[in-house]
Design brief:
This protein has 280 residues and is mainly beta. The protein has four helices and 23 strands. It has a six-stranded antiparallel barrel. It has a five-stranded antiparallel beta sheet with strand order 6-5-4-1-7. A four-stranded antiparallel beta sheet has the order 10-9-13-12, with no helix packed on it. The longest helix is centred in the N-terminal third of the chain and has 11 residues.
Length: 280
């Protein structure tokens, strides 16, 4: 069975319980497949949890059944066709107003808007909404240094949240997934999956702004990812989410953080070991 999220952000968990690890999130208007269900303890005839697989990146997990809306097959076919060509929210946070009841819904960057027009109106399953057009791109942004700087500057200092992919909390691969979606690049969910996408770049001398950079902790296991921001040798830098979204120095060894300076290392420390560079 297919389904849609009509909430701003839906937590997707590793197990069917509220205290389980959040492995990712589902944004407003995203589609999924319901794989299984777990009944409510109060009313066994009603599902309390759905096990879902996201259409966008294939991630699986458990979502509160109250936050997932099953769809008829004809609804899904029509909506998914529109979703493939949807506009996208480019600001970290925007607000849409329902034409049905006037309620306001916060929408985070990367949320896709179906049947969008230049007036700021879009439609989801027959319900109309209004949004500030300056918050939306009708077509993917061109990936160039200027647009990249413009897009990522609004994410600075968003805090780290395991499994997060919205403006109130991001993990490292959630950040890269959201940012690259603004440029029409659909990434898989985790750093270890994203490193399999795109084309390899041999070294930092051949890198350009917008390339993804992958790291380990000297154990060979990909555990972190960021985006190259500047490529000038004197100003080679990465924007990434580690504690918060921030810009730090990058070189062939890895990420050098002045925040980790102490009395024994007054200039700072390396925090992540460079493993690979990929161009999407």
């Amino acid at each position: 069975m297919k389904a849609i999220s009509l909430h701003s952000v839906v937590p997707v968990r590793s197990e069917a319980r509220e205290s389980a690890e959040q492995c990712t999130q589902m944004l407003f208007g995203e589609l999924c497949t319901i794989l299984d269900s777990q009944p409510s303890e109060i009313n066994p005839q009603l599902p309390q949890w759905y096990r879902i697989r996201l259409d966008t990146d294939g991630q699986e997990g458990w979502a509160d059944a109250k936050m997932i809306s099953p769809m008829k097959s004809e609804e899904y076919a029509s909506y998914s066709a529109d979703y493939a060509h949807a506009a996208v929210v480019v600001m970290p946070m925007a607000y849409a107003v329902s034409e049905n009841n006037g309620q306001t819904i916060p929408l985070t960057a990367g949320t896709r808007l179906t049947k969008y027009d230049e007036t700021g109106r879009f439609e989801v399953l027959g319900v109309g909404f209004r949004i500030d057009p300056s918050m939306v791109a009708r077509h993917p942004l061109e990936l160039n240094p200027q647009n990249l700087l413009q897009a990522v500057r609004f994410f600075l200092n968003v805090p780290y949240l395991w499994g997060g992919k919205n403006a109130m909390g991001l993990d490292c691969s959630g950040f890269t997934q959201v940012v690259m979606s603004l440029f029409g690049r659909q990434l898989l969910r985790n750093a270890s999956e994203q490193v399999t996408q795109g084309q390899p770049v041999p070294d930092l001398q051949h890198a350009q702004a917008g390339d993804l950079v992958f790291f380990d902790h000297n154990d060979g296991r990909i555990s972190h990812v960021g985006i190259i921001l500047h490529t000038a040798s004197a100003d080679l830098s990465i924007i990434h989410c580690s504690g918060r979204v921030k810009v730090e120095r990058l070189d062939e060894t890895g990420i050098f953080s002045v925040e980790r300076a102490d009395k024994d290392h007054p200039e700072g420390l390396y925090t992540h070991h460079l493993v690979a560079i990929r161009r999407m």
